[in-house]
Amino acid sequence: MSYMFAVPDTVAAAAADLAGIGSTLNAATAATAAPTTGVLAAGADQVSAAVAALFSGHALDYQALSTQVATFHTQFVEAVTGAGNAYAAAEAANASPLLGISQDMLNAVNGPTEALLGRPLIGNGADGTAPEQAGGDGGLLYGNGGAGGPGGAGGNAGLIGNGGAGGSGAALGLFGGSDAALGLFGGTGGNGGLLFGNGGTGGAAGDLASGVGLPGGAGGHAGLFGIGGVGGEGGNSATTAGVGGAGGAGGTGGTGGTSASGTGATGGSGGAGGLLFSPGGAGGDGGAGFSGADGGAGGNGGAGGLLFGTGGGGGEGGATSPSSSTGSGGDGGIGGTSGLFGTGGTGGAGGAAANATGGNGGAGGGGLWFGNGGAGGIGGFDAHGDGGDGGDGGNAGIYGGNGGAGGTGGVGVGGNLFTGGQGGAGGNAGLLAGNGGAGGNGGVRFSGNAGAGGAGGTGGDAGMFGNGGAGGAGGDRVAGSQGNGGDGGDGAHGGTYFGSGGAGGHGGYDDSGSGGQGGHGGDGGAAGTIGNGGDGGTGGDALVSGGTGDDGGDGGDAREIGNGGNGGNAGAGATAGNEGTGGTGGQLIGVSGTDGST
Length: 598
Fold this sequence. Notes:
Blueprint: H1 8-37, H2 46-117, E1 172-175, E2 208-210, E3 412-413, E4 445-446, E5 477-478, E6 510-511
Parallel strand pairs: 1-2, 3-4, 4-5, 5-6
Helix pairs in contact: 1-2
């Protein structure tokens, strides 16, 4: 038995094309009728008249045949058009019963499962409508969770599907109240499917006219493959003593709430990645502090998936009010650890402050097995005080990987006796192989008297095989009087068996007026059994009259095979610093490094 397949839309399009062809032929036939049927004789003789009559007769016969062809073409077009309409009608007539049959089949499959377990096998969960009403769970096999009502949790997915979003809390003018029945808290996002699916977004918390802001809802967890849901934003408090609510944890942590006059809330932590292959969520930013209060700390980044996954970055620390005379910026969140294979998350930046101290940058996340450490966060800026310290770089995995770079110290501006932030230390390399992370540069110090640029961070140590991390440069001292440039960080030692030491960081320069001094250059790191010592850093210059240049760093020593590091040059000034001493060469093979110059 043979079968025929027809596509109604294609048949209808063919009928339209045929109608257009017929119209074109009819127009051409009509245009040629007059000149071909009325041919004039070439002369008055009988032969010319006979030739003209012959051609005119042929033209009349053609016109008669064309009329018959046009009639047939019209009938053919009508037949094709009718066939297309018939196919479309038959398809529509057959579709409705099939839809009913498929729904009936789905009901037959879901009915016993729902009666036994209270949950369908296939289908999406219903959305919650009333306050605090949770969204319905998705099908056990396939389906998304329903969204929660105001303050209600999102429904969970089954094997495959996305979790439902948590409902947002209501905004009410209560004094310190936190009545859950009113749906003030942000609802928790539903969990994603056990196999495939993303977690649901957590609901934002409601705002209060007084009291402590409420926490945002946590984002839902992912399964084997998927990304955790975003945490809800913490609620705000409008009082002069209230504290903003904490952001919810999630794939990406929620932002901490703000307060009219109180400490900003901590940002929510990033959620862990899916069990096997997903990145960890980023930590939420800390809430801002107002009227002299501290900014909230950034949330920590979530861990990456167990097998392959990058750690989430730490959240940024909350800033303080620009018009406030007190209050420190919040610290940045710590970067999340990676999975067995992956890179740790970057630490969050410290929050900015107006007059006290900028927040410290968060430490970078570490690798777990084979993986690189995350970079440390940048220290917070301070408009009239100390800059925040940069975060330390994360350590690499146990067996291999490079340490993360240390974060740069925050910039300090104005005031007396304040400093730029210290650069973060570089992360250590893996135990077996890998290079240590570079130390972060010290923060720059602008204006004010007797202040100093921040010191550079030390480099991270190598493992058995690898190079030590370089020390960070000292922060520069700009404007003001009697200030110092920051000292450069020391380079780290090379690997136990093979690797060169890290170079020392350069000392920061000083151009802050008479009596200033440049920063000391960092010492180079010692080499491993085989490898060269690191070079010493150059001493900082004093760029104004009466200033003193600082000493260059010493070069690192080689051990068995390798050259010693060169000493750093002395910093220039009205009084120059001392040059650094070159490191000794290897006991078996190698030459000593040269001393620095003045």
